[in-house]
Design the sequence.
């Protein structure tokens, strides 16, 4: 038993979640507890959530154990198409960054807007790091925006703990889409 534990040490146990309604798969740490989950143990959405209507969103899940570190996975019906969606995302990002600079209660220490590929699909990644004016702790806010299989996908988290933020990043990076 000791050898098995030592051989297993350093490798984090993962649990694969397959969203059967969409043909999407993610990996989460085995000990992940979901809050506000919209799917059952087989990965099927609860009855009545599909089909999505225009401007309607479904929170597939949120995870987190306190008010400072929480991750959510949200989908909406794609009503813009790829070309228009990209320009809307760029405009939104510009406005969001400008508004953050005007908030007097926080001090922005870093921000970025990049293109990344997750599971073969293009996503826009927006990152903001800030501290409260009266606080020493840095908070990281991350949003991924992507289009896949007729859905607008948003993966987001806000966290003041680097280790949890790294875990959330790994969950986002594990997203895979069926062909």
Sequence:
């Amino acid at each position: 038993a000791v050898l098995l534990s030592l051989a297993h040490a350093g490798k984090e146990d993962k649990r694969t979640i397959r969203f059967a309604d969409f043909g999407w798969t993610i990996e989460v740490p085995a000990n992940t507890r979901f809050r506000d989950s919209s799917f059952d143990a087989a990965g099927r959405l609860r009855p009545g959530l599909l089909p999505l209507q225009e401007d309607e969103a479904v929170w597939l899940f949120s995870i987190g154990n306190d008010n400072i570190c929480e991750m959510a996975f949200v989908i909406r019906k794609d009503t813009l198409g790829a070309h228009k969606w990209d320009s809307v995302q760029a405009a939104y990002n510009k406005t969001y960054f400008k508004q953050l600079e005007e908030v007097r209660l926080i001090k922005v220490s870093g921000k970025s807007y990049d293109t990344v590929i997750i599971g073969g699909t293009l996503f826009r990644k927006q990152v903001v790091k800030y501290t409260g004016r009266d606080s020493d702790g840095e908070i990281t806010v991350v949003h991924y925006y992507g289009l896949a299989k007729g859905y607008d996908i948003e993966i987001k988290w806000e966290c003041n703990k680097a280790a949890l933020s790294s875990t959330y990043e790994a969950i986002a990076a594990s997203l895979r889409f069926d062909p």
About this structure: The radius of gyration is 18 Å. Strands lie at 14-19, 24-29, 34-35, 57-63, 70-77, 106-118, 121-132, 138-148, 151-159, 176-177. The first strand starts at residue 14 and ends at 19. Residues 159 and 167 are 11 Å apart (CA to CA).
